[in-house]
Amino acid sequence: MSSEDETRKLLKFREDLKNRAQALQEEISDLQKAVQEIDKQIVRGGFRQPTATRPSPIDKVESVEDDPSSVKSKNGTTLGSLRIEADEIVFEPVSGLIFTASIPPFQSFFIDRVLENMKTTDEERVARGESSPNDALVYEVVLEGERIVRISIRNYGGERRLREIHSSLRWAFDKMYDKLRQG
Length: 183
Fold this sequence. Notes:
Elements: H1 3-45, H2 57-62, E1 70-72, E2 78-84, E3 88-93, H3 106-127, E4 138-144, E5 147-154, H4 159-182
Antiparallel strand pairs: 1-2, 2-3, 3-5, 4-5
């Protein structure tokens, strides 16, 4: 076998390997997208745990009539108000409840897993040129000491994300409310 034949075989083998590597990279990308979609589904619905709870007398006092702009616990206690404007969501906890940024799962779930995940996704889309930097999610948590006063989320990105944020916010603050009640 001549060195020319050997070189042709090596070039063909090299080309086959490059094609295979590219196909695997595309498959990895598809799998990562699938994992992200599964994570979104888990965030959206995986944390709703139906439980029959008996409201205490204090819960009845704090509970307000059905108001679509309020965020309520499982037992109906109003946890805060939610204002939705053109491209901004503003949540303000009820003043009588002292929610702090250190109460789980605020940081670990709502900030790190929900908002930061959305922010990172938007930043990646901007980096790929798929959207404008002005369309990327930005959020701000306003604190007085450790107490959460307001959460503002701009450029949340549509109805689906609005539902996801609302659901995640309600779940996180409901869990925080449970921790406050337990002392």
